[in-house]
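Schema walk-through. Below, the input block comes first and the output block second. Nothing else is stored per chain. Lengths vary across the set, and this one has 274 residues.
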Amino acid sequence: MDEQHNYRYVAALVTYDGTDFFGFQYQSDHQSIQGSLEIALSKFCKYTGRVVGSGRTDTGVHARGQVIAVKVDWKHDLLALQRAWNVHLPSSIAIQSITEVASEFHPRFSALSRTYCYYVTNHLVAELSTIRRSPLTDRTSLFIASPLDIEAMNEAGRHLIGIYDFAAFGQPTQGESTIRELTEVSWRMEDCAMLATTQRFLVFTVTGSSFLRHMVRNLVGTLLLVGSHKIEPVQVKEILESKRRENCAPPVPPHGLVLEKVTYPAEYGIRTFA
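--- output ---
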């Protein structure tokens, strides 16, 4: 008797701490997010093809709102699939929700926008800048001792909102254009109960349809120069217009970067974090 299959195409919202992974994409000789998801799934469920993600986060980069899709042979309800998958995943990866989607859905190509956040722990006053960073936040934020000028960084960020050639801030996939559209570029202060009262969280948020390789980390590095009063806000516009990578600051380390949210047309019913 032929084996009966009940293949369903599902999308899942995934959160992970990327510290101990060599990025999202599968690697035969290193631990990856994609590989870990597939290994866990194979322990209790048949599936076809690969687990596909909305973006290939780099080594050490985290996600709160990564979206993946895969075709699974599963006859039970989707909550049971979520629970079973999580049981077999390492503690640093978690499936937050699962939705059955139409066959034409693709996590990357169906996306309308992506939002990244970069987290910085920072001292409020220069006199306290010799205090050591907090071990409780070292894995997920960049420590900068000297105070940063948020108003200046936000002024500089406004020069980046719109449709521009961002060649100065990143590398495209071979054959792709360097023109991108950013709809949000902002910095804000955020409280964190784990930090001492002499410190603060600075959160950089950027939203766009897509990004060049290392683009977000290059943007953060350049805006931090503005916040440190090493360059003026208007110079960010000049760097953008130069289209020359050597005019941009080096990228900040990956551990402060989080893929926060990916949005899709409403008809797909994909859940995202607010």
